Amino acid sequence: MDNRAIARHLRMMANLYEVADARHPLAQQYRALSNEIRTLPYALKDQLDSFHVHAKLPQELFNSLHKLIHSGAKIAFLGLPTGVPPTLRAVFALPEINPNVVRKWYSEYGITSLADLKAALQSGRLSDAHGLPSRVWNTLLMEVEKLERQISLVPLAIGQPFGRGWQEHLLTYPGVMRVEFTGELRRQLPLTTSVELLVAVTDRSRESVMQELLREGFTQRNARLDATMVELRMQSEVDDRVIPVCLYVTTVEDFYPCWVMTSGDEEHRNYLGVTDTDAWIASLRQARPTTEVDVYKASSRAYIEPELRERGSLRKDSRRFVTYAALQGDLHMHTTYSDGAGSLEEMVRGCIARGYQYMAITDHSKSEIVANGLSEDRLARQHEEVLRLREKYPEIVILHGTEVDIMPDATLDFHDDTLADLDLVVASIHTSLFIAKKEQTARILAAIESPHVDIVAHPTGRMLGRRDSYALDWDAIFAAAAAHHIALELNSNPNRLDLDPKVLRLALDAGCLFAIGSDAHSVNDLERIYLFGVTQARRAWLPTERVINAWNWETLSDWLSHQPNASTLSS
Q: 367, 402 in Cβ contact below 8 A?
């Protein structure tokens, strides 16, 4: 669990204390602790004891932190003596819900969960808005149902580490030789219906492995345990989330045909010519495939990359799609100047290690108080450090920029004079997320039309599994972005993956440019582009020439110089 996740859970603990008592003394302590942890320059999980001593934490707060880090969120919340049920956490994921509203629902109507709230709304028992704006109250039941659908899906940021845990566990079984992600998880769908794994076993151990899995709680979906590939399923609970797990068990000999077949959707199976699984796999044994490429060749089909093995993508010419190797830089990252865990120099060295030609430092602007946003003075001091690092590291171009907030009134968080002095401006929304579609669209259009903005970051504001995208007029936004030559970001944070590939395809058709940004808050986070961003870009069919950080420095510099923003690169 990283610092931002820990901070998020602590804020929720503060919410629950406020539900119990609006003036609960611990609520403010938990919020303050959350803000402090979010901006720590090191991973708290690795230095919890020293942090405890340094911060002089009250024992109750330390106990919560310790449980959260070492036992998980479910145990930590169950052990919290708030006097209110932790199942109320889910209710706070609804738009504009606050502790005062939830306190009324809990104390007056006995609502303890999302299911209780839905039933109360459907029956008409809850007929008072309790201070909620009418636009929120009028759509509350719809938002509850939407949230239920979200909770039933598994965000990639949860599914991957959960799947890795199962990989490690299954590899302890005698006779299990290999365990790999497959299905939606391997195609990296931002939200998956289940975690699917392909398990390869030796012939002699197959029966014993199957019996052990059945004893562990899996149930078989196939009619026969001796089928070429057996499908097993179970429900696993992690931190109040139920995650469906699907295992495909096969032999080492049949591993690659099974991996190719299970990694795609039904249209991909049809493409391969699979009508009978056992017969299709048996037909490939003589070819003895030792790679996935061999499987396609033996099936007389052109090879398709895993992320494209789904409806609509099978016959695309993927040679034009952006690749990992094509990226020349990263244009969205944070340092210890705001809420990052890596110093400016550490981020520079991290980008050099990745072979980048250029990079952009884009710490938060002043209104992002919780993220330690930079004032104009601190931004100026940061610029002085950038100048020193340019001299020290001439092998990479260091752009000095900002992630400037788009304010509720559609203005930008820094004055035009300040933005004009920067090399790159990334604009994004972090507040007033659930206002009306017309007003939200107007905010983004105002940023696009600014003479200083180059990139619009995480344009829909979604947090996978926790917060849905806000409503926007995409036709207007795409037309404006294309006309003003502004890049729309594909944010590589696995909790966001924003824009979604389906929306990116529409933007591509509208003639837009794109940036694949890591939104890194540490050196390790720079890997997000490779681990997640490029895969989503390829699922969206983005060609290399339309991704601005796949351009070489000369091309990007020319683009920036033709933007209205005045570059200071010669400084």
A: no
Rounded-to-integer distance, Cα 397 and Cα 399, Å: 6
Task: Please answer whether residues 442 and 407 qualify as being in contact, where contact means their C-beta atoms are separated by less than 8 angstroms.
Answer: no
How is residue 393 written in tokens? Answer: 């590291």
What are the start and end residues of each CATH 3.20.20.140 domain in the chain?
320-562
pLDDT in tens, 479-537: 999 999 999 999 999 999 999 999 999 999 999 999 999 999 999 999 999 999 999 99
Closest CA to 514 of 476, 566, 458, 447: 458
Which among 10, 22, 19, 25 is positioned nearest to 110, based on CA atoms? 19
Q: Give strand pairing partners of 517.
A: 491
Residue 24 CA from chain centroid, whole number: 33
Which H helix or E strand runs over 235?
strand 230-238
b/e per residue, 345-368, with b = 16+ CB within 10 A? ebbbbbbeebebbbbbbbbbbbbb
H/E stretch holding 455: strand 455-456
Tallying the residues shown for the chain, one arrives at 571
Q: Which CATH class is domain 320-562?
A: alpha beta
Residue corresponding to tokens 């979906």: 221
Residue ranges matching CATH 3.30.460.10 in the chain: 154-316
pLDDT in tens, 376-394: 999 999 999 999 999 999 9
Architecture of domain 154-316: 2-Layer Sandwich (3.30)
What letter would DSSP give residue 410? S
How far are the Cα atoms of 283, 427, 517 from residue 569, in angstroms, in the given order?
Answer: 61, 20, 21
3-state secondary structure of 345: helix
